[in-house]
Amino acid sequence: MKFGVDYYPEHWPEERWTVDAKLMKEAGIEVVRLAEFSWAKMEPEEGTYDFSWLDKAIATLGKEGIKTVLGTPTATPPIWIIEKNPEILPVNQEGIRLSFGGRHHNCQSNQVYRNHIKRFVASMAKHFSNNPDVVGWQIDNEFGNSHQQLCMCDSCRTAFHQWLQNKYTTIDNLNNTWGTTFWSQTYSSFDQIPVPLRTPNSHNPSLLLDWKRFSSDLIVDFQKHQLNIVRKECPHHFVTHNFMGFFDKTNYFDLSKDLDFISHDQYPMYFKKSIEMLSHKHSLAATLDLMRGMKQKPFWIMEQQSGPSGWETMSPTPRPGQLALWTYQSIAHGADTIVYFRWRSCLFGTEEYWHGILPHHGEPERRYEEIKQTIGELSPVMEMFKGGLPDSDVGILFSYDQEWAFQIQPHHYDLNYINHLLGYYKAFYEANIPVDMVSDEQDFMKYKLLVVPLLFLSKPDLTSKLEKYVSDGGHLILTMRSGVKNWNNTVIPKILPGDLAPIAGIKISEYDCLNDVSQSIRWFSSELFDKVEQVSKWADIITLDGAEALAFYAEDYYKDTPAITQNIYKQGITYYVGTELGNDIMKEFICYVVKKSNIQPILQTPKGVEITNRTSKNGKYIFILNHNPKPEVFYIPYNWEPVIGQRFLVDSKINLPPYGTAVFKTK
Amino acid sequence: MKFGVDYYPEHWPEERWTVDAKLMKEAGIEVVRLAEFSWAKMEPEEGTYDFSWLDKAIATLGKEGIKTVLGTPTATPPIWIIEKNPEILPVNQEGIRLSFGGRHHNCQSNQVYRNHIKRFVASMAKHFSNNPDVVGWQIDNEFGNSHQQLCMCDSCRTAFHQWLQNKYTTIDNLNNTWGTTFWSQTYSSFDQIPVPLRTPNSHNPSLLLDWKRFSSDLIVDFQKHQLNIVRKECPHHFVTHNFMGFFDKTNYFDLSKDLDFISHDQYPMYFKKSIEMLSHKHSLAATLDLMRGMKQKPFWIMEQQSGPSGWETMSPTPRPGQLALWTYQSIAHGADTIVYFRWRSCLFGTEEYWHGILPHHGEPERRYEEIKQTIGELSPVMEMFKGGLPDSDVGILFSYDQEWAFQIQPHHYDLNYINHLLGYYKAFYEANIPVDMVSDEQDFMKYKLLVVPLLFLSKPDLTSKLEKYVSDGGHLILTMRSGVKNWNNTVIPKILPGDLAPIAGIKISEYDCLNDVSQSIRWFSSELFDKVEQVSKWADIITLDGAEALAFYAEDYYKDTPAITQNIYKQGITYYVGTELGNDIMKEFICYVVKKSNIQPILQTPKGVEITNRTSKNGKYIFILNHNPKPEVFYIPYNWEPVIGQRFLVDSKINLPPYGTAVFKTK
Amino acid sequence: MKFGVDYYPEHWPEERWTVDAKLMKEAGIEVVRLAEFSWAKMEPEEGTYDFSWLDKAIATLGKEGIKTVLGTPTATPPIWIIEKNPEILPVNQEGIRLSFGGRHHNCQSNQVYRNHIKRFVASMAKHFSNNPDVVGWQIDNEFGNSHQQLCMCDSCRTAFHQWLQNKYTTIDNLNNTWGTTFWSQTYSSFDQIPVPLRTPNSHNPSLLLDWKRFSSDLIVDFQKHQLNIVRKECPHHFVTHNFMGFFDKTNYFDLSKDLDFISHDQYPMYFKKSIEMLSHKHSLAATLDLMRGMKQKPFWIMEQQSGPSGWETMSPTPRPGQLALWTYQSIAHGADTIVYFRWRSCLFGTEEYWHGILPHHGEPERRYEEIKQTIGELSPVMEMFKGGLPDSDVGILFSYDQEWAFQIQPHHYDLNYINHLLGYYKAFYEANIPVDMVSDEQDFMKYKLLVVPLLFLSKPDLTSKLEKYVSDGGHLILTMRSGVKNWNNTVIPKILPGDLAPIAGIKISEYDCLNDVSQSIRWFSSELFDKVEQVSKWADIITLDGAEALAFYAEDYYKDTPAITQNIYKQGITYYVGTELGNDIMKEFICYVVKKSNIQPILQTPKGVEITNRTSKNGKYIFILNHNPKPEVFYIPYNWEPVIGQRFLVDSKINLPPYGTAVFKTK
Lengths: 667, 667, 667
Fold this sequence. Notes:
3 copies of one chain form a homotrimer. Chain A has 667 residues and is an alpha/beta fold. Among the domains of chain A are: 394-596, Rossmann fold; 609-666, Sandwich (Immunoglobulin-like), CATH 2.60.40.1180. In chain A, the strands form 6 sheets. A 9-stranded parallel beta sheet of chain A has the order 5-4-3-2-1-9-8-7-6, with helices on one face. In chain A, strand 7 (263-266), helix 10 and strand 8 (299-305) form a beta-alpha-beta unit. In chain A, helix 5 (111-128) runs parallel beside helix 8 and helix 8 runs antiparallel to helix 14 (400-408). The two termini of chain A are 28 Å apart. Chains in contact: A-B, A-C, B-C. At the B-C interface, helix 2 and helix 4 of B face helix 8 and strand 16 of C. Chains A, B, C: Keywords: Glycosidase, Hydrolase, Metal-binding, Zinc. Chains A, B, C: GO terms for molecular function: beta-galactosidase activity; metal ion binding. Chains A, B, C: Residues 6-379 form the Glycoside hydrolase family 42 N-terminal domain. Chains A, B, C: It catalyses: Hydrolysis of terminal non-reducing beta-D-galactose residues in beta-D-galactosides.
């Protein structure tokens, strides 16, 4: 199964199903995802099940050779459940219980709701366990989506208390760890601890971080609750869940562990006002790299954009070639299966402008033809890449704990963990240097260069691991605010960067939040002239303690003190960047570091042309992706063997059309 | 009764009433509106009525020949009602019951409240039914004002269920119509259906449209509840209600039907930060045209601005001449009676900066003199215009259903039904071509040109009516997003513009929401040079199917495809505009269309000088309104006979002072 | 006691206390504030007291000669109180009860809470009454902080009713005073009156002003409740409270009356996005002048900024020299004692980025050295200034009632009472003319010039006082919107400026809110050329009635009418400014007025160099404060005798380093 589509037979008359199945087959579709929002249709009243319509749909598709992945529809409890047990509805930060009427109107800690799930999911799984056309399951849908403030109901409060008790054992331990002596917040029992409902000012930052961890663990536990049921009834089916890239309500590393593989929903064109994080080409690539990093193995795209997205507002329409381009990009970064969302634009409901491959009227048009052609081109060669991954010399450490800690205390209004991290990612991306996103549990030694941005919370085992990495010859980039706090979000009373000082070879005597304050740095470029560029958000004021300076501040009372340093430590090097860099000096810096680390870009390409590799047992495959709305021409090494896109080659050059793609094999 | 004023005798000592009455009479005032917020004074405790003060006030005014219109004070239930029945207080979208302390603190579905109204309004009506100075009634005040989110209490929920049951008869019918299979929202009984309280994400768009219709109908029904009482007790009195122009909580066409005539509150200078819709001269004219369109007959201005408006903040002060100008404008567009709001600036309460004709201190000043002079000038000639209406060749269809549908799904962040419509209105306004605003129930055949903007929701009878209109020689302008949905807000699975395709002669294969995307169009102007101008919000990508192109897109992959088309259909022409035009090409386009439709502007005037006609059985009267803060000079046709403003004529030219006005009669 | 520090021994291990005490002593610290947030540690469960740790801490500090001020910890009721009496938690404007988890989570009217306080504070006060190291008390902490919307619970509602009954005696009196006849808001008993919870629109402005006064009085009463306890137990201790400058939830004049002296928390660098009011040098000076004005005597700084401030976000770091500079500035404006906040940056809790003198790691660094040096320099000479105050010829009247009235009705979106007032302050500040901030109860006669900005609410005794002031030769500046309303926030029906008209010699026939309207004025400068400058917010249209015009409007229909007037009244002069001036004409105007009033600037200094005086029984001391990040050189009068900063003198010039300071004595 290499290409699929998300399909909602329950939205269409039965007689259309055959038409759809034939059109799918013609386009090369081999798998569908079904039923993930259809609880009401499968259990119209408590204990009365009707799977017959779904049996029929699966069979109709099966007749065309199309397999089915089923979703557990637990993101949409029907009204009769809510009517019976309104306590399932989630409560927001104001203490207001939300209403039925959308989706995700459920509290994930609620035991009554879990019992409804147990009854229903067990029945559903049992019913489909032996259906030969069913191959696997998706649990729920996009966990954490729609739960902006997380649920703050009494059930969650009790679950939070239990979670805290498991973590801290005694209330004294919690009091000491959180520093509740501040503002007289000392507790004498766990059940006194508030969930972070609105207070006259701010909650304790340690409580807030534990709340975010608890909420993440709750989702992991909620998934496990369903996984256990499905695995028991359907031991031969795979189980996955559809992630959402940089979405951060759940620690996806944790959520991944229980799954056979992870899936991801990739929407390059978003329907809301553009969010910086999502609106750049490098962010799309970074998203896919993060998803691959979850289990360091290939993954599915469970929802690959197939048209304009939209709820109340809409994205622009994907330009001709972009649906293909994005498909190639997903595969290039490690997807083995691409499932498009959705088959046909729905005629009703909140998502009627979340366009499918087919338009509302159902006749194949441009999007169908483009996807059909893309599948036709890729399907024969997918086996070559299968199981392969990009070959990366650079790792960037991604940490949900750091992300949450900066949400709780952003320091500067505009400081954002993910944007800071993407600043580094972008420099590698534009230099055509593949990157892996890694968790702190993964192996660092395979990377020539490791970037650990904003290592704000530190813990001894991670510090040791980094020390060992550098000792053994690794090159490490650390950035501002490293080593400030322990893992419980309280400050370590040491000179910064705390336990990282030895490998960084610096001391930070002071720091300056660039809140309405201007600062810039000077980089001694390889040419005759220096570059000076604005920096932002923060400035560490650094004293060298073994390290040497690579760049200097250019303004205010700490002018001419070091802003970027490098420290040779045993076999390796630690770089420290005391501020948030602008694009130009970031580029200079990464160029410098990459050379030092002996890392080679794949190829020089015109701006906007992404190039990356995917290396399987069959060889190393180079994907070339033109993200520009105009053709791009450039040289291709003589020894690269075209796999797709030979037609674009003229002599030793490739002439890619707008949004055009090609795949080569290197020797 | 041609001129009146809104008066609050209860705010002033009784001895002042005589002074006020005399000053009113001197200014030419013939009618007052009284008592619309004075429930507490008329019924200080349940069942104890005191109308004596009002009798006295009416008599004092009557002695000066001034008649009275009474308001039912149901927008301000007294505290003793709220204390007894707090369930009358409205509930907002968060589920929070609002507090007593302002006005409109009432739920319009609440039966207990309706009973209070029944008791009180019957007593009041009975008491005044034979008072010879009382001539009519205003029901409540500005329905829908202050109900931003509509009431979401349990009583409204029950009323909504009843409304839905009346509309859909069976729950299956509702489920099928709304497409509740989407996200498992299927209902098994009407009482399960939520009111749109906050959910984790979005409600079903069909539910939301029905909710808006229900809320509108509720207001119509609430009015009828009072109307029945008043009509029964006072069969010889007229009954009206004061509307608020483009305000859209109620379908004013529906609200109009039960009234003898409609009234309108006209405030050209608003106290809040300027709202685009209201801040332009053409919007003021459009507002009046919409009000005239309600019953296609003359109306009252029940509140004509008489000074700076203000609550917590204030508008600027109307410039000398503007109060007169706005009075002329109201009459020009169809008002037969002008009632100024208010007599004297109040000394207390929320509206103490909503300035009256008299200032706080009560001595006549500039505003009193200006209004007195205006009345003196107009009063003798009002009879000539009476009952007359503007003579318009152009109709613009206004639809509350479309407005609501675009509120629910604006498509593009800045797309707004009324602003889009006003883009067309403005082009006619600036060309001095009178326009009627029409509902879809009114006769189209009287117009040479009909503009139907954003005909998003379509219904067969309206489609047929438009087809017949064009067939019989009408010229029709349709715009983007036409024919997308049925009247229940779900998508029609047809190639766009759906059932309108035959008369438009086009097919829309794709569309592009201009969300962060640039687009422009090229108009082949009559000169040698083309005009290219930015468009916004949306671009339909059009294939000609009989039509010909008038303008073309100028950017991106659909460059050079049609953006505006014209299609000769039987005896008429359909124009289709696939995007939202800028000012320049809108002007070119309307100029082109107007010529084709053989429509003549009244006269060329300098920018900022409005000219329109009002045609009664006595002849056609031309109103000239200089909205500019400077004099304007221009030619007047030799055969126009001055009615007002002869003093401004010099030879064949008129020299209007700043904000000056004149009226002519044509032969 | 001249220098102190806020210290939290409970945040640090006991063994550190000795180290801290020694470091404090070395730095010259003589007093600490302790325990103001430590209820939970002193009363871990109801009725069980543990003051032993605090005894120990006090003794440890006492051994180094450091005295203690104790805070009553009533801003942080422990969780066991909230658990037992959740009704103590405050309720916001939506009617939502806030949660435990921050601080100030208490309703100040709640009797149950007051009983808890009575029990605890009595025990605490009794325990420490005879401790020789304890010298005084701070009641609670920063009253009003964190109570953005004030508490709207049932207890506050009842207290509000009682307050209203005390004020108005009868409900008829209240109805008449508030004008409740408007919108039928007439009450028949006090207990019907709402607290200003959210309504469909706006509450009565008189109710809103009384609500703000009630809330202020409630805080005064809450302080008195504690004061009585402390004074009874500790008759020999002083009692103070830490104010927050222009913070306006409480009328600080009222709050001051019950205190021995007031204290103030001075934070020149704020952690939130810059607020105009706070971000200018002149605002810092104005804040201090307001604090001095409370009791017209010296005060304490209870929290003087000692490092970057921060909660979730941070301020920049104070530049080298700024901590010293701000210390000098506080003393220059009347502080006798400077207590720095805080000793050491906390390792946990909401304020871990509110940096202390010591950094998190506890080793003395730059900030410690700077403060130590500052204390070393100042300590020997503090006795000279002690008890002295600046000698000011100018008074600016500050009124909480006016501030509240403009919050309720700002008239123009951007009109703000304090910013308007600071416009005048700034002109004097930049001209090096010292200013006193005075309440309307204080003596005006000592000032050559009195500025009364926005005297919106007027009352007969104040009007008389001002009339007498001018009659007797005083120069008075009045500004727009004077004399509009009575003290109960309803309009006085007189020609403006109402009762102030006689002394102003003008009549205001109209006014124009500059809401989206442009206006400017022309000042006839002493040179050949006029100045024209934009004005904003408001324009009074003035008719001279004895006064003469100093400046004229330059736009629109009231062009060339007076904008600023002066009126010779008996022995004095009244100026009236009918608009909000820009910087340039404000400067011209103040320069003109100052000359007329025969007021001398202390000295001409470069921009950014503040100069002011503090005059004690020992003489007149001149403080020079360089707020610029660069050195400034200028002449010093030959007869000024250096007290501090002699090293900066070169011949007759002073060469101040960046942020440098000096003190001179004049003869």
